[in-house]
C-alpha cells in the first residue's frame, strides 16, 4: 500500500470552497471565477457545489432551506474527512441567503413573501464551524 492510500485525507484540498449559486444559475455559478482567482498559484485548492434547486419559483423558500441543510451536511462530511483543510463558504443571490442561513440559521418570511422553514445555525465552536476561514455573501435575498 502506497503512502497516498494510507492517508485518509489524500484527496483533501488545503483550501476548499463550498459554493451556493444564485437563482437560475448553472453549477458552479458566478463564483467559479472566485475559485479560479483564489486557487491560482495554490498547490492544493478546489471546490464543490452545494446541491439544491436554484430555479426561481414559488418554492424558493423550500429550496433555500434545502440548500442550507445540504450545506450543513456537505461541509460537515468534508470537515470530518479533511480536518486540516481551510474551508471557504461563498454564496451569491439565493446562494447568499443560503450561506447566511448556514452560518447564522435561517427561516422566516423571505423577499417574495414565502415562509422558509427554520434551519439551524452552524456552531462556531465545533467542526465544521471552527474550520471555516472565510464567508463571501453577495446579494442576499433575505431581509
Describe this protein's structure:
31% of the residues lie in helices and 24% in strands. The protein is α/β, with parallel strands linked by helices. The strands form two sheets. Strands 2-1-3-6 form a four-stranded parallel sheet, with helices on both faces. A two-stranded antiparallel ribbon has the order 4-5. The longest helix is centred in the middle third of the chain and has 22 residues. The N and C termini lie far apart (53 Å).
**Which outline best applies?**
globular
Q: Specify the CATH homologous superfamily.
A: Alpha/Beta hydrolase fold, catalytic domain
CATH arch. level architecture? 3-Layer(aba) Sandwich
- Main β-sheet, in a few words? 4 strands, parallel
What is the share of helical residues?
Answer: 25-40%
Our estimate of the beta-strand percent is 15-25%
Q: Number of helix segments? A: 4
Strand order of the largest sheet: 2-1-3-6
The number of strands is 6
CATH topology category name? Rossmann fold
Through-space gap between termini? 53 Å
Amino acid at each position: 500500500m502506497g503512502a497516498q492510500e494510507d492517508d485518509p485525507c489524500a484527496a483533501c484540498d488545503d483550501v476548499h470552497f463550498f459554493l451556493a449559486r444564485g437563482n437560475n444559475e448553472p453549477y458552479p455559478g458566478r463564483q467559479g471565477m472566485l475559485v479560479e482567482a483564489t486557487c491560482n498559484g495554490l498547490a492544493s485548492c478546489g471546490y464543490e457545489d452545494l446541491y439544491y434547486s436554484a430555479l426561481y419559483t414559488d418554492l424558493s423558500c423550500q429550496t433555500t432551506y434545502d440548500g442550507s441543510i445540504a450545506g450543513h451536511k456537505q461541509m460537515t462530511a468534508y470537515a470530518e474527512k479533511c480536518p486540516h483543510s481551510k474551508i471557504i463558504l461563498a454564496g451569491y443571490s439565493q446562494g447568499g441567503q443560503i450561506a447566511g442561513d448556514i452560518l447564522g440559521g435561517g427561516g422566516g418570511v423571505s423577499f417574495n413573501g414565502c415562509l422558509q422553514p427554520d434551519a439551524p445555525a452552524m456552531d462556531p465552536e465545533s467542526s465544521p464551524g471552527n474550520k471555516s476561514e472565510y464567508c463571501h455573501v453577495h446579494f442576499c435575498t433575505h431581509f
